[in-house]
Write a structure and sequence with these properties.
The protein has helices at residues 3-26, 33-53, 56-79, 87-104, 107-122, 124-133, 136-155, 169-193, 199-209, 211-224, 229-254, 259-282, 300-323, 325-337, 341-353, 359-384, 387-410. With 413 residues, it is mainly alpha-helical. Helix 1 packs parallel to helix 5, helix 7 (136-155) packs antiparallel against helix 8 and helix 12 packs parallel to helix 16. The protein is globular.
Length: 413
Amino acid sequence: MNPDTFLQLAISAGLGLLVGLQREWTASGATGIRTFALITLSGTVAAQLSETLGASIVIAGFLLVGAMMIVSWYVRAREQDPDPGHTTLVAALVMYLAGAALPLIGVGFGVVLTGGVAVLLQWKAPLHRFVALIGERDIRAITQLILIALVVLPALPNRTFGPYGVLNPFQIWAMVVLICGISLAGYVAYRIWGTRGGTLLTGFLGGVISSTATTVSYAGRSKRLPGSSEVGALVILIASTVVFARVSLELVVVAPDLVGGLLPPLLTMMAAMLVMSGFLYRTTRTGESGLEVDEDPSDLRAALTFGALYAAVLLAIAFAREHLGSQGLFLVAGLSGLTDMDAITLSTAQLIEAGRVDTATGWRMILVGGMSNLLFKAGAVAVLGSRDLLRRVAIAFALSIAVGVTIILLWPA
């Protein structure tokens, strides 16, 4: 007999024991550790026998396990618990399929599926707390992200149009989905932890959601609350530092083959700003610091605006490369980065992949966009914030820009 057969059975038993242990530990009276192990083993054995007896035995086993679990659920509802829930029943059916997946699909798939089941079962309390926290606005944000990702995106043509051959509707909207997804993840984290988080968490979430909005928020707060400038400067600097982590993540997602040439200088800039943030944190009296979030992270109008901006940056870079040379590219990067780092990052990555911009020029354009973004936020603080906040932010941003200029000039070829 093939040794893999016994290995599959051993892994199947282990996976079933894992989920069964969780169920028996957290749900008193529910189907427990031995039953889950047997259910998972049943799926594996049925899948192994299907090579000889056909796929019908796997289907029959699934129906039999489902029937037994439904009967057990019904008896428990009648005799013990008027509301026994459906979680254990569904988990048992999924574990049968996980067991069947080991021979049919592969051990990796079965292990990952089981891990997902175990995490979902264990996260009952946090997930219910999240549901209790969200409101109509949050449901709308999640629904809109699903709409733009699963309805709009597949309907768009995946080919280039327009002048210079750089406008691909599918790719442009895929970037919109990526940015909305990152912002929504930060927004969800804010809804769970942000309102009671400290300064570090506030700055991190501000950078994930929108460092510019965070800067404007704390600039206005420094006028209303004169004593908040110290914490405000720290939050703004942390949020601006996280921007470089955010664009690095975007590059990893959209251009994984380019990260070796693009990320090191950007991460060096981020590291320098992290050091400055750490120094400022050590010298700042911190406490709880709520983040004000007014925008919907997946608002359709904002998505369309970003898509239009992204397309405009693509065209501007292609035009500058064709007619203005490298100086024109940096001018476009600086203007684009004033209010949005995502568009210049993603458009540059796309053009590098297409061979229209070289890697060395590309990361410099992104870094110029980042420094331009710092200048814009300093201007927002100058207009909206207190003098004390402006002084603190100006020093931090001036040092950051000095580091960026040094990297651009001295980074080895």
